[in-house]
Write a structure and sequence with these properties.
153 residues; mainly alpha; 6 helices
């Protein structure tokens, strides 16, 4: 009895994974049919707006199989599915897009870039900003004198 239950479990798992793979292929074919041969920015924006739940998959197809403006494609995907911004950013990284382009796309899409930034070994990279103005050069002094010294008088 245990053997037949185990075999039945294995068969059902095999069929469910086969169905998942089949659905993923169908989904991929559907996305490609919607995008056409050479999708313009307007076409893929409309498709992303119509199917926001598929935004990560649509972006993956766009970045890997078409010549598009990567930053605009990422921005459009993040605008259509802001709740999937982290997944979208990871797909872009996997496609070889620079962190700078991903961060800029997130900013333009209205997403907090700290939510999608990739941590380095030293932590999250930040740029230090010094808000203090530079000090003026010193002129003259209280003595010493000599040739080539500017006098405060």
């Amino acid at each position: 009895m245990k053997t037949s239950a185990t075999i039945l479990s294995i068969i059902s798992i095999a069929f469910s994974s086969l169905t998942f793979a089949f659905n993923k292929q169908e989904q991929h074919d559907f996305i490609k049919s919607q995008l056409g041969n050479n999708p313009s920015e307007l076409i893929y924006q409309n498709i992303l707006q119509a199917y926001p739940e598929l935004a990560p998959n649509i972006l993956s197809v766009l970045l890997n199989q078409y010549i598009v403006n990567n930053q605009k494609a990422i921005e459009s995907a993040m605008r259509s599915a802001p709740n999937k911004a982290l997944e979208i950013a990871q797909i872009a990284r996997d496609a070889g897009i620079s962190n700078e382009d991903i961060t800029l796309a997130a900013l333009l899409a209205g997403i907090d870039p700290t939510l999608i930034s990739e941590a380095s070994a030293a932590g999250v990279q930040t740029v230090e900003v010094n808000n203090a103005p530079p000090s003026p050069p010193s002129v003259g002094g209280q003595g010493g004198g000599g040739i080539g010294v500017i006098s405060p008088n």
